[in-house]
Amino acid sequence: MNIKIKTLTMKKYISLSIALFTMFTIALSQPNQNNADSILGIFWSPKKDAKIEIFKRGDKYFGKSIWSSSTRKDLKNPNESLRNRNLLGVEFLSNFIYNGNGYEDGTIYDPESGKTYDCKISFSGKNLKVRGYIGISLFGRTELFERVI
């Protein structure tokens, strides 16, 4: 009788182990809700005077203006030959790499100052927290981009 109980216990243990292994394998193979491409879409700029489309080129992420409340030129650009271009269509966000929690190693161009800053992006709910900084992210500013689509 004692041997029969141990056999049943061992069979239950093996069955449970197989079931858990199968569940973990399936869970890891399914796309994560916070997968890298969840950033793709259209977002309002912080002042809601422009819409920015986040798109993917290769394995990196970029953002460009696709709508603006006014026609503006890139007057502060340090490259004089670009000062006459319209800001509509300009890539403001460049070369972001997904790290599993957010997006890093990118840059953001600020047309108000004509400067380009290091940048990282993370989610705040369905919206984006975009942090531009110089050197280390401790010295920077975070703006919220609200998802449109």
Task: Compose a concise summary of this entry.
By secondary structure, this protein is α+β, with helices and mostly antiparallel strands. The chain has one helix at residues 2-29, and strands at 41-44, 50-57, 60-68, 91-98, 103-110, 115-124, 127-133, 140-145.
Number of strands: 8
Order of helices and strands: HEEEEEEEE
| Form type | elongated
Note the main sheet.
8 strands, antiparallel
Tell me the radius of gyration: 24 Å
* Average predicted confidence as pLDDT: 86
Helix content: 10-25%
CATH architectural name of the largest domain: Beta Barrel
Give the structural class.
Answer: alpha+beta
- Main β-sheet, spatial strand arrangement: 1-2-3-4-5-6-7-8
- Number of helical runs? 1
Q: How far apart are the first and last residues' alpha carbons, in Å?
A: 65 Å
How many structural domains? 2
Give a structural overview:
This protein has 1 helix and 8 strands. The chain has an 8-stranded antiparallel β-sheet with strand order 1-2-3-4-5-6-7-8, with no helix packed on it. With 149 residues, the protein is an alpha+beta fold. The chain folds into 2 domains: 1-30; 36-145, Lipocalin (Beta Barrel), CATH 2.40.128.520. The radius of gyration is 24 Å and the shape is elongated. Mean pLDDT is 86; it is low at 19-34. It has one helix spanning 2-29, and strands spanning 41-44, 50-57, 60-68, 91-98, 103-110, 115-124, 127-133, 140-145. Strand 2 (50-57) and strand 3 form a beta hairpin.
